[in-house]
Amino acid sequence: MNDSYRILKKMKEKKQQRFAMATIIAVDGSTYRHPGAKMLIGEDDSQYGTISAGCLEEDLAYHAREIINHRQPKTVIYDLRSEDDLSWGQGAGCNGSIRVYVEPNEWEYIPPDHHQPIWPEVESVLNNGSKVASAKRVSDDDAQRVHLFYTDNGAVLGDAETGLKEKIIPELKRFLISGRKIELIRLADVEGEFLLELYEPREQLYIFGAGPDVEPIARLASHLDFFVTIIDPKTSRCNAEIFPTADQLIPEHPETYLQKNNIPQTSYVLIMTHSFQRDQTILRDLIASPPQYLGVLGPRLRTTRLMAPDALPDWVHSPIGLSIGAEGPEEISVSIMAELLKIKNKK
């Protein structure tokens, strides 16, 4: 799950509302969600996202109301290992403790020493396909808040005093290269801990074909935070009425689209046109410049024939989807998205 994308999307939808944003910053033992998981609690008590299986959210909502009203962040620690009600009031009997940082937030949030809302800037960078690393001081004193952002193309968003900025920027560069999603650090001669977080753009999924079997895949992929692009020449199918959750609908012949556009190497591609010649053209084009995932609908024998007399590379997924005995478009869509998540999460 791309929690950061979901949080930004919800704050943008509710521009006039104030929120408390909760982030798991540390875990000791086994817990439902990992460090970096986020949820948003609105001033109207609405909740978006989750940081547990439901056993923490009610208590967290109580803290959120206080944080929204007083505009002061705080750190809350939940010890879920106790089986009685003396630890924090619930006695969940799980196998870990969770440290949660809760801070006031909103779409028009302006970081200290910055002069305009930061989240629209971050969203713009993410929409352009770049990553953003963020550094904030974990403090219960709002006056000590520091929030800097560094993009993978070298831009700095937000501001801080010169000496502190010079210490944070190298850490953000290192963090971006590390591939980690979250990290707590201390800086020499600087008070407090700093939370480093990675904000990533959504994974791009290109689907060649707009048949009925694509509909549940597009819905599920959008729900799982993929940026979905559907390419098909039939305007009667490739339209917003049939694919309301798709981010891009391109009513072009695949070969025409591929002549004018490059498929990013970090993207995921499904070939589902149900046309042998069209599948053959798309597959041969993408073999030359492979994306992160390339899957072809249909049995392996058919996909092998698409490449004949050349050999089909082992990394081409065909048939697509995990082998879970799926039947029908809905179940098959689950198997396909499970395989994409397996690749994305490197599991």
TrEMBL record:
<protein>
    <submittedName>
        <fullName>Putative subunit A of xanthine dehydrogenase</fullName>
    </submittedName>
</protein>
<dbReference type="InterPro" id="IPR003777">
    <property type="entry name" value="XdhC_CoxI"/>
</dbReference>
<dbReference type="InterPro" id="IPR052698">
    <property type="entry name" value="MoCofactor_Util/Proc"/>
</dbReference>
<feature type="domain" description="XdhC- CoxI">
    <location>
        <begin position="15"/>
        <end position="79"/>
    </location>
</feature>
<dbReference type="Pfam" id="PF02625">
    <property type="entry name" value="XdhC_CoxI"/>
</dbReference>
<dbReference type="InterPro" id="IPR027051">
    <property type="entry name" value="XdhC_Rossmann_dom"/>
</dbReference>
<feature type="domain" description="XdhC Rossmann">
    <location>
        <begin position="205"/>
        <end position="340"/>
    </location>
</feature>
<dbReference type="Pfam" id="PF13478">
    <property type="entry name" value="XdhC_C"/>
</dbReference>
